[in-house]
Amino acid sequence: MSVEQKGLNKKIIEHLLNNEEFLAALNDYYDGEQKAIIIDCLSNSKKEHTLLMDKFEDWFREELREGDVEILTIGWDSDGWGSGGNGAVWFNSRFGVVSFGSSDYSDDHIEVFEKDNFEPWCIEHLCNDYVEISSEVYNEDELIEIANKLGMNEDTKLTVNGKEVEVDEVD
Predict the structure, then answer these.
(1) What angle, rounded to 10 degrees, do the helices at 20-29 and 10-17 form?
(2) Model confidence, pTM
(3) What is the pLDDT of residue 19?
(4) Do 100 and 131 have their domain in common?
(5) Residues 25 and 86 in one domain
(6) 60: exposed, middle or buried (C-beta count within 10 Å: 0-12, 13-18, 19+)?
(7) Which of 3, 65, 67, 84 is deepest in the core (most CB within 10 A)?
(8) Same domain for 122 and 163?
(9) Co-location of 47 and 87 in the same domain
(10) 75 in the same domain as 44
(11) 16 with 78, same domain?
(12) With contact defined as beta carbons under 8 Å apart, do 36 and 52 qualify?
């Protein structure tokens, strides 16, 4: 299986091969020969060295799960929906690549993080009584705009980066 079949498209591969943090982490984890093979397989979309590339894929996915920058976290709760009316999704970045996590389901989609073009996936509508949204990247106004784009109800109680926001601020 090629690296592209595992979700690492050309844009992500190009980004990673030019990312100093990624290359340093790769160097810390793999010996010189393994690192050279991985870079060659990534650069040329080779289908060789299956065991090493499977190991690399596991390492890379684990690195993404441990993402060191909180791009966006959205949590929700509902008064009337019972136990199924709450949950959270989060988008973290490592090496400039965004990965997704959720209290309800998994998604292996990843993409290069571009702040101005980022669109949270796997969430269609914020239709709950309480919504919390936070980020290390976006400011309060940007987070309110994201919440509004996701169709938040006007009677939703919104908390942004730990601060309750009045409904009349959410326009």
Answers:
(1) 80
(2) 0.81
(3) 97
(4) yes
(5) no
(6) buried
(7) 3
(8) yes
(9) no
(10) no
(11) no
(12) no
CA dihedral for 91, 120, 57, 18, sign (positive or negative): negative
Q: What is the pLDDT of residues 102-135, one digit of tens each?
A: 888 777 789 999 999 888 877 766 667 888 999 9
For residue 84, which phi and psi values (nearest 5 degrees)?
-85, 0
Residue 56 or residue 48, greater confidence: 56
Spatial CB neighbours of 76, under 8 Å, sequence gap ≥ 6: 85, 86, 87, 88, 126, 128, 130, 131, 132
Supply the range of the domain harboring residue 38: 4-65
Q: Half-sphere exposure of residue 37, counting CA atoms within 13 Å on the CB side?
A: 15
> Exposed, middle or buried, 160 (CB in 10 Å: 0-12/13-18/19+)?
buried
Q: How far apart are CA 8 and CA 24, in angstroms?
A: 19
Task: Please write the tens of the pLDDT for every residue from 51-63.
Answer: 999 999 999 999 9
149 vs 22: CA distance, rounded Å = 32
CA dihedral for 70, 100, 28, 8, sign (positive or negative): negative
Q: At residue 56, what is the residue type?
A: F
Question: What's the structural domain count of the chain?
Answer: 2
Q: Are residues 38 and 77 in the same domain?
A: no
Tokens of 64: 């993404």
